[in-house]
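User: tokens in, sequence out, please.
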């Protein structure tokens, strides 16, 4: 891996240390005790999307798990999750909640582009706003494919490409003006923030196919009519996300 990419990963790790201190640690308890899985900024219920299916008895790897609330939901549903994240601070929050609330499952500190896990160890690889935006898809998609058994599923949520075109460089939510070119959004270094990847739909199709995946679905996620702005993530407003998709939920199968 290049020195440039190593520096970007170090920057992202530092960003998430700050985010956990300011926001995600305090929010984690409520996320862990949710009675059902939800997706994204506007907490769209899994029962409305049906992308995970029955996970009982399945080996699941969560990439970019943050405080590992998705893995907690999956464990309670009968899966055997392993939660992976770059941030030691977020994993420390996850460990505290495992002790306080349960259930317990393995927590692994690692870069999603270089995973210390065995080939074919998973039936499902899942990520909710983790590797999709924060890791290089040319690196993390082959890793996800390596982890999956034949026929295994990849389910990941990321910011919509359109939102990445409309979010200001410095601060604030997406507006109604295109602020960067279609190809410029592939890799964005935010002022005062980290480095993110926002491939176009065409890029995602090409990259997924190159890693041996068959695309099953793309769900474009909008804000519900009765939704509200997210408490701390400044990406899109509820009003904006009611008109345009805020997030993209991809489902693919390893061939």
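Assistant: Sequence out:
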């Amino acid at each position: 891996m290049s020195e440039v990419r190593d520096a970007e990963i170090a920057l992202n790790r530092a960003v998430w240390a700050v985010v956990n201190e300011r926001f995600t640690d305090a929010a984690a308890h409520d996320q862990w005790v949710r009675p059902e899985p939800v997706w994204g900024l506007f907490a769209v219920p899994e029962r409305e999307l049906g992308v995970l299916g029955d996970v009982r008895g399945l080996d699941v790897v969560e990439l970019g798990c943050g405080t590992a609330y998705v893995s907690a939901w999956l464990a309670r549903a009968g899966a055997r999750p392993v939660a992976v994240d770059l941030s030691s601070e977020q994993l420390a929050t996850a460990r505290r909640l495992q002790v306080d609330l349960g259930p317990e499952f393995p927590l692994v500190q690692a870069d999603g582009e270089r995973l210390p896990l065995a080939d074919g160890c998973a039936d499902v690889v899942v990520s909710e706003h983790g590797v999709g935006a924060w890791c290089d898809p040319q690196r993390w998609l082959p890793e996800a494919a390596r982890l999956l058994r034949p026929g295994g599923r990849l389910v990941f949520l990321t910011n919509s490409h359109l939102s990445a075109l409309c979010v200001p460089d410095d601060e604030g939510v997406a507006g109604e003006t295109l602020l960067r070119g279609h190809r410029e959004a592939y890799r964005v270094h935010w002022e005062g923030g980290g480095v993110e990847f926002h491939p176009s739909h065409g890029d995602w199709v090409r990259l997924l196919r190159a890693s041996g995946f068959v695309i099953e679905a793309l769900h474009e996620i909008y804000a519900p009519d009765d939704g509200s702005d997210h408490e701390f993530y400044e990406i899109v407003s509820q009003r904006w996300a009611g008109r345009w998709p805020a997030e993209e939920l991809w489902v693919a199968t390893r061939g």
